[in-house]
Amino acid sequence: MAKKYLKPQDIVVLARILTWDGERWTYEDLGASLQISASQAYYAVQRAEYSRLYDVERGRVRRGELQEFLVHGIRYAFAVQPGAPERGVPTAHSAPWAAGYLAASTGDDFVWPHPAGTHRGLSIDPLYKSVPDVVGEESTFYELLALVDVFRVGSRRERDVAEGVLADQLERPR
Q1: Cβ(147)–Cβ(97) under 8 Å?
Q2: Integer Cα distance of 18 and 16 in angstroms
Q3: What pLDDT does 98 receive?
Q4: Above 90 in pLDDT, residue 26?
Q5: Taking 60 as the threshold, does the pLDDT of residue 55 lie above it?
Q6: Which pLDDT value is given to residue 102?
């Protein structure tokens, strides 16, 4: 029997499903949108179900449970340490979503390293390697994954702000 522990890409898969809420999708659709195979998408959903973050019978992400995990657990389960400054896609409180919530400060911008990135900041590994390629600049999917990174690298104050934004995101129909 394969291990059923969550992997970081499972959170990416759940975020994609959330942005498709109410729409019919296949594992092929899910995989293609994330640059993973259909079987990887399938196993990600299975692990999420095992971890009680996805309800297969209803075909829905368990929003409350996911929120609890992101706010209180992702920081420890999928820890990240900022690396050297690089060019990339802004994430966490450096992403566009944060402009209306957090004051920008210099020197602590975070990016997912990417050769076509338009910003410079401390590099952090995305939850899955294809994230910088698949998020799209102003998409809800990008906003959600960048928001998740606040829980991985943000200060206590930033995480508190992000918690409120996340609650709004998870309550909002897509």
Answers
A1: yes
A2: 5
A3: 87
A4: yes
A5: yes
A6: 77
Residue type present at position 133 = D
Cα distances (angstroms) measured from residue 33 to each of 16, 104, 158: 8, 31, 29
Instruction: Compute the residue count for the chain.
Output: 174
Q: How many CB atoms lie within 10 A of CB 131?
A: 25
Report helix, strand and coil shares of the chain as percent, to nearest 5.
Answer: 50, 10, 35
Rounded distance between C-alpha atoms, residue 174 and residue 169, angstroms: 9
CA atoms of 38 and 135, how far apart (whole Å): 18
Q: Which helix (H) or strand (E) holds 90?
A: strand 85-91
pTM, 2 dp: 0.92
Reported as half-sphere exposure (CB side, CA atoms, 13 A), residue 82 has a value of 19
Among 141, 112, 114, 117, which Cα is nearest to 30's?
141
- Alpha-carbon distance 1 to 14, whole Å? 23
Which residues pair with residue 90 across a beta bridge?
Answer: 111
Instruction: Return the percentage of the chain with pLDDT > 90, whole number.
Output: 80
Give whole-number Cα distances, 118 to 10, 87, 91, in Å.
27, 7, 12
